[in-house]
Design brief:
Strand order of the largest sheet: 5-8-11-14-17-20-22-23
Oligomer: single chain
Helix content: 10-25%
Strand content: 25-35%
Structural class: alpha/beta
CATH superfamily of the largest domain: Hexapeptide repeat proteins
Order of helices and strands: EHEHEHEHEEEEEEEEEEEEEEEEEEE
Radius of gyration: 17 Å
CATH topology of the largest domain: UDP N-Acetylglucosamine Acyltransferase, domain 1
CATH architecture of the largest domain: 3 Solenoid
Number of strands: 23
Number of domains: 2
CATH class of the largest domain: Mainly Beta
Distance between the termini: 46 Å
Length: about 200
């Protein structure tokens, strides 16, 4: 697979490594900022936008969204043509009975279990878990070691910090953010709540 990667921040560095490790080819990196380290800058020159020439040169290349921030994801997708592909690392486990949207990034050792539905442009970082019968809304992001247990329903644009978890059956409204290390024990239906603690409660 050939990819045109969007992003040059820390998460983009990780995604680039994962893509290379699985022996895929990166033909361009697109971002408004350069890499902050020589090791990546030497290998990939960052361009600020996709050109028709690039698309013509690599007609089979898919766009890959290497950004974790929900708001930035939506801006990038809105500004570019729909050539979005997904990346699922070979060390992850994605059930054949799950359903995946477009533009999904599944990082090493992530798990997606049976009958879960993953929306468009969802990011599942390393060691994340989406248990059985989950629904994960578009543009949502799971940071490393985050997880939602069985029968959870996660709205669009949600964000889980590192090691944030939901117990089985929890529902979260669109735009909810679960702070790192927090444990959500009941559903929250107010959009854009910031949940923190164990049990997680809306931040005042």
């Amino acid at each position: 697979m050939r990819y045109i990667v969007f992003g040059s921040g820390g998460f983009a560095k990780e995604v680039i490594d994962y893509v290379e490790d699985d022996n895929h080819e990166i033909v361009a990196v697109v971002s408004t900022t350069k890499f902050n380290s020589e090791s990546y800058a030497k290998r990939y020159e960052v361009i600020d936008s996709v050109t028709e020439s690039l698309l013509d040169t690599y007609p089979d290349a898919k766009f890959l969204l290497a950004v974790g921030d929900v708001t930035v994801k939506k801006i990038i997708v809105g500004k570019n043509v729909d050539r979005w592909g997904s990346f699922i690392h070979s060390s992850s486990h994605v059930s054949r009975r799950s359903k995946m949207g477009k533009g999904v990034v599944v990082c090493p050792y992530a798990t997606v279990l049976g009958d879960s539905i993953i929306g468009n442009f969802v990011t599942l970082n390393v060691y994340t878990c989406v248990a059985h019968d989950n629904v994960v809304g578009n543009y949502s992001t799971y940071s490393p070691y985050a997880g939602t247990m069985g029968n959870c329903t996660i709205g669009d644009d949600c964000f889980f910090g590192t090691s944030a978890y939901c117990i089985p059956g929890v529902s979260l409204a669109n735009g909810c953010k679960v702070s790192a290390g927090s444990f959500v024990r009941k559903s929250h239906q107010t959009e854009n709540d910031v949940l923190i603690g164990n049990p997680a409660k809306p931040k005042p």
